[in-house]
């Protein structure tokens, strides 16, 4: 069953408890960062699976803050999975996108092609890393760590269909409060995301892409590479089948029977 997490930005206070919970649960390293003229911190995904974007806008002389927690979006049309040459990236039974660390060779293709630029390269381990929507917790019936830590109800975890219904209700309520630009983000983008956002305004006001798409190179690579993978798979299966057949032919025949080559030799007597 597809799972999702609601990000209702009308309720986000940018406390970043989600960032801390994620670091703690995934045992990610502490990183030293500087002040770059914004409260947004960390400034990028190096050493982090998630970060809250701080976007400021001025409307009618009034400063507005827009906060949006970002991480791997768990795209249905996952560009990272399209380009991974080793099959390390797959869609899980929850509809999420996960990386098998044992299969990752650190080629960086997924990082170069990710639609949202959210994967980071771990130099020490020579592999790609990103949010897996807490696959380990979910597999054990638990709520992802960030959603568990959120105090305001901004993050809510559940079945994707239920989360979508909650998002639509929250958008309707926001519009009733005068937020005319309120909208759902993630329902159909990139085939549907695993994170469903309630935005107060257009995606650009949060620095989210308005019409995200997997890069053309990813689709091209998939079209080129997948058939090769299928051919390689078929070749392996054929090899296994022919090995088994060969072994069966060489196996000693039970007493009183004659098979394969043995039968040919018998026939020549
Ligand atoms: S956001 Fe990037 S890493 Fe996550 S599923 Fe989409 S393409 Fe893959
Ligand atoms: S870095 Fe790892 S996960 Fe990413 S494309 Fe290469 S092998 Fe696949
Ligand atoms: S779902 Fe888990 S891995 Fe993803 S951002 Fe939340 S805590 Fe981090």
Provide keyphrases for this structure.
disordered C terminus; 34% helix; two-stranded antiparallel sheet; Alpha-Beta Plaits; binds iron/sulfur cluster; alpha+beta; four-stranded mixed sheet; 8 helices; 269 residues
Topology:
Layout: E1 3-8, H1 17-26, E2 51-59, E3 62-70, H2 79-83, E4 89-91, E5 97-99, H3 109-113, E6 120-122, E7 127-129, H4 135-139, H5 145-149, E8 155-159, H6 160-176, E9 183-185, E10 195-199, H7 216-250, H8 260-268
Parallel strand pairs: 1-10
Antiparallel strand pairs: 1-8, 2-3, 4-5, 6-7, 9-10
One iron/sulfur cluster is lined by residues 21-22, 25-26, 49-50, 71, 131-134, 144-146.
Task: Report on this structure.
With 269 residues, the chain is an alpha+beta fold. The chain has 2 domains: 212 residues, 2-Layer Sandwich (Alpha-Beta Plaits); 44 residues, no CATH class. 34% of the residues lie in helices and 18% in strands. Strands 8-1-10-9 form a 4-stranded mixed sheet. β4 and β5 form a beta hairpin. The chain is globular, with a radius of gyration of 25 Å. The chain starts with a strand and ends with a helix. 33% of the residues are buried. The structure holds iron/sulfur cluster (3 copies). The site of one iron/sulfur cluster has 14 residues, from α1 and α5.
């Amino acid at each position: 069953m597809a799972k999702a997490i609601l990000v209702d930005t009308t309720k986000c206070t940018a406390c970043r408890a989600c960032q801390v919970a994620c670091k703690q649960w995934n045992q990610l390293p502490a990183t030293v960062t500087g002040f770059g003229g914004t409260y947004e911190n960390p400034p990028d995904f190096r050493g982090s699976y998630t970060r809250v974007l701080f976007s400021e806008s001025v409307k009618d002389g009034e400063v507005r803050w827009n906060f949006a927690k970002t991480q791997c979006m768990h795209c249905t049309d996952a560009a990272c999975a399209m380009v991974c040459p080793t099959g390390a990236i797959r869609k899980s039974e929850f509809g999420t996108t996960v990386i098998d660390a044992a299969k990752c060779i650190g080629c960086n293709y997924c990082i170069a092609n990710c639609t949202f630029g959210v994967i980071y390269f771990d130099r020490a381990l020579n592999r790609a890393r990103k949010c897996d929507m807490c696959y380990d917790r979910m597999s054990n019936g638990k709520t992802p760590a960030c959603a568990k830590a959120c105090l305001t109800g901004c993050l809510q975890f559940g079945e994707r269909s239920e989360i979508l219904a909650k998002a639509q209700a929250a958008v309707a309520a926001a519009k009733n409060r005068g937020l005319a630009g309120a909208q759902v983000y993630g329902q159909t983008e990139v085939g549907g995301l695993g994170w469903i956002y309630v935005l107060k305004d257009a995606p650009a006001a949060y620095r989210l892409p308005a019409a995200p798409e997997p890069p053309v190179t990813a689709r091209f690579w998939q079209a080129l590479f997948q058939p090769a993978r299928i051919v390689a798979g078929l070749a392996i299966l054929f090899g296994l089948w022919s090995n088994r057949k060969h072994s069966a032919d060489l196996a000693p025949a039970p007493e009183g029977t004659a098979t394969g080559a043995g039968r040919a030799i018998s026939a020549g007597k």
